[in-house]
Write a structure and sequence with these properties.
GO cellular component, one term: membrane
InterPro entries: AB_hydrolase_1, AB_hydrolase_fold, AB_hydrolase_sf
Pfam families: Abhydrolase_6
Shape: elongated
Protein name: AB hydrolase-1 domain-containing protein
Number of helices: 19
Strand content: 15-25%
Helix content: 25-40%
CATH topology of the largest domain: Rossmann fold
Number of strands: 18
CATH class of the largest domain: Alpha Beta
Strand order of the largest sheet: 9-10-11-12-14-13-15-16-17-18
């Protein structure tokens, strides 16, 4: 039986630890590691005291069942902490408390805090009141009845009240006497101290409770300043770390998370989708938490690094943007059990990534090839999460011939070669030759760069991933698109056939159609073949 509760952690950094280093560690390593355990933690909220008392910082995590905190899944987090975490924890005065939930009452207007945007949630007030039962035999029962029968109802009349919850010392705190903590959530603007609040704490029953049954051991007031998702995203505090210091670069023990501020802030980590797939991502650019975000979808068989050369230009030309890249499902692995990719699933992956990063909306989404088709599908499926898009070198509808071609490519990729390797290396050479303009094929560094990228794709992931291109047709939906878009194509893609195809369906987008920009002297990946030419094609839309 589930016994929900709270992991409640107060923290006071010692004088030798900078707040930027403290926050960067907690926001990018400690908190997201816990939020990745969605079966245990439903949220993670950080507060800062507004009452002038210490400890100044509080982290509160809602726990689905307190028994989970005794499992190896959770205890291993402490046992296998990184050297950075061990060192940082040594410079913070930490007190951890486990609380079992007893009672809860919330306003009809209450929305779970983790479902709010950062802007909506910032500044929410938390009042934390700890009560110690007196020695009377029925003190514990009296405290619970007072909260359930009177006090929460009285507090609900206070302007700005959102929720009250009563917790008691968890059964995990073996040998500890029973104590209570009440957590009261209020809007940023509230009636604390006003007439309704004074009435709630001045009733005859309240006075009797404190006289006979309970002692208020502490009352703290906090303001919410950070909400965790499962994905690390704090570029701001990372950007404040000295670039030449040891603290400016971190790599997790499992190698899946990397952060650095040398020479500029970058976060590389991953999310886990609802079907169990790991999706790596890279976040960089403007470190302002409120900066607009542009995201990039790579093509099938390539990685997020196919955008490297273009992003060097983009960062210089548009420094106001935060930049998000990720690897498609199929690049590294497939979920267990195997699931065939579809455009719907790929659009959902973007949505899940944005949720994990707590990004309510992208300013721009840019995709190429399968990434271009995914970009259009995302605009159709999640218009509320996208301001505008650029879809490159793709088709709005697949054909039987296309499906046959992909099946043949799977066969090539899986065929053993005479040298003992597998055919994905052969497929890489054939693919790059098919993709690139003849002029690009003379650029050996570009050819080798993309060829190596294609050859490194997981073969089984390719088998399931390419099926997103087998059977789809978005042409009927395109008229319904409410997100403005730009279409871009390399002049020589499919020897010019894709230019004709995209020119044929560009007018079907929304009410006004889309403009088609053509990048001369390029083929299927114009942003790789001629980054400057691609910038010239898209800059007015950025």
């Amino acid at each position: 039986m589930a016994n929900p509760g709270s992991l409640y952690v107060t923290m006071q950094p010692q004088p030798g630890l900078s707040l930027e280093q403290f926050h960067e560690w907690y926001n990018n390593e400690h908190g997201p590691t816990r939020l990745k355990l969605s079966q245990i933690f439903t949220n993670g909220l950080r507060y800062r005291a507004t009452d002038g008392q210490e400890p100044e910082f509080l982290a509160a995590y809602d726990v689905t069942s307190m028994s989970h905190l005794e499992t190896e899944t959770y205890t291993s987090l402490r046992a296998e902490r990184s050297p950075r975490e061990a060192e940082t924890i040594g410079q913070v005065d930490v007190k951890r408390h486990f609380w079992d939930r007893v009672l809860s009452k919330q306003s009809p207007l209450f929305i779970p805090i983790e479902q709010l945007t950062d802007e909506e949630a910032e500044g929410l007030t938390l009042v934390a009141v700890q009560l110690t039962p007196k020695e009377a035999d029925n003190s514990v029962e009296a405290i619970q009845k007072w909260y359930g029968e009177e006090h929460m109802d009285m507090l609900s009349k206070v302007p700005g009240w959102l929720r009250s919850r009563l917790f008691k010392t968890s059964s995990l705190e073996k040998g500890e006497p029973t104590r209570f903590i009440a957590l009261h959530d209020y809007a940023k603007t509230n009636g604390l101290g006003g007439a309704e609040y004074q009435a709630a704490i001045s009733t005859p029953r309240t006075k009797e409770l404190y006289a006979k049954y309970a002692t208020m051991s502490s009352r703290r007031i906090y303001s919410l300043f950070y909400i965790f998702g499962q994905a690390s995203r704090d570029l701001h505090n990372l950007s404040q770390l000295p670039q030449d210091s040891i603290s400016s670069t971190f790599k997790s023990p499992d190698g899946k998370t990397f952060t650095t501020n040398s020479p500029s802030p970058v976060i590389e980590s991953y999310i886990t989708t609802p079907d169990g797939l790991t999706i790596p991502y890279r976040l960089e650019g403007n470190p302002d938490p409120k900066a607009p975000t542009v995201a990039f979808c790579n093509s099938l068989l390539t990685s997020l690094h196919m955008w490297d050369r273009f992003i060097d230009i983009f960062k210089a030309k548009r420094p106001q943007y935060r930049i998000l890249r990720y690897d498609f499902r199929g690049r590294h692995s497939i979920p267990p059990p195997p699931q065939t990719s579809t455009l719907d699933v790929l659009a959902d992956d973007i949505s899940n990534l944005l949720t994990a990063l707590r990004l309510p909306k992208l300013d721009i989404l840019i995709g190429v090839s399968l990434g271009g088709a995914t970009t259009l599908k995302f605009a159709l499926k999640y218009p509320e999460k996208l301001e505008k898009f650029i879809a490159c070198d793709f088709n709005a509808v697949s054909s039987p011939a296309n499906t046959t071609a992909w099946k043949e490519r799977i066969a090539v990729a899986e065929t053993p070669l005479e040298d003992g390797s597998v055919g994905i290396k052969k497929l890489a050479g054939l693919t790059v030759e098919r993709w690139f303009h003849p002029d690009t094929m003379q650029k050996q560094d570009t050819v080798a760069w993309i060829q190596d990228m294609v050859a490194a794709n997981d073969i089984e992931g390719f088998r399931y991933g390419c099926q997103a291109l087998w059977d789809f047709d978005m042409t009927a939906q395109m008229k319904e698109c409410v997100v403005p878009g730009l279409f871009v194509v390399g002049e020589g893609d499919a020897r010019g056939a894709l230019v004709k195809a995209m020119d044929g369906f560009k007018g079907q987008l929304g009410q006004a159609g889309a403009h088609l920009a053509i990048v001369p002297g390029t083929g299927h990946l114009p942003m790789c073949e001629d980054p400057e030419g691609f910038w010239a094609a898209v800059e007015k839309n950025l």
